[in-house]
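dude i think i finally got it to work??
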Amino acid sequence: VEVLTGLIKANITTRIAFQVATQIDSRTILDAGGAEKLLGDGDMLYISANSAKPKRLQGVLVSEAEVKKVVKFIKNQKIKNGEEEIGEDITVPFSGGSIDLDSVPDSDQDDVLYEEAKKLVIETDKASASLLQRRLRVGYARAARLIDILEENGVVGPADGAKPREILTGGSSQETEYEDLTKDQKERDKWQM
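look at this
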């Protein structure tokens, strides 16, 4: 039975194994034997991306009886203080109407990242999610979203398979050099007549 695919295991570089029944189970988790020899009660093997050899650690073990004692203690404290329930009800009925999620403004942090992404794309004359991931230190989803926003605003062209995206302009907020040249030309024409 294939429990974890190779792709999943390759992307999870840090692993923890508690006591298991067989060496096969240990190899499924750690790609190495040893977890079948653990004592239980929080005894574990830990493998990180930095070390290939498993480290034996002692994790915290809280028994079910201890959990019940703590819950009972908290309940008693609440009752002594005159509170009937442990927590408050956090559900609030919806008052109606509709919510337009498209009209929700982006946060300030997104705006800052957008400007940084735009500047980076224009300066490097390259636009890719992986570039934004590396330089802005963000995840793939956010980098891809920034690329989409740059495309919507006319900074970069649409994706064309494996080809790099074309850098179209500096975006709508930046004047092009051609506008300045036409103003200068009009001034020159005035003086030449």
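The chain is about 45% helix and 10% strand.
im so relieved honestly
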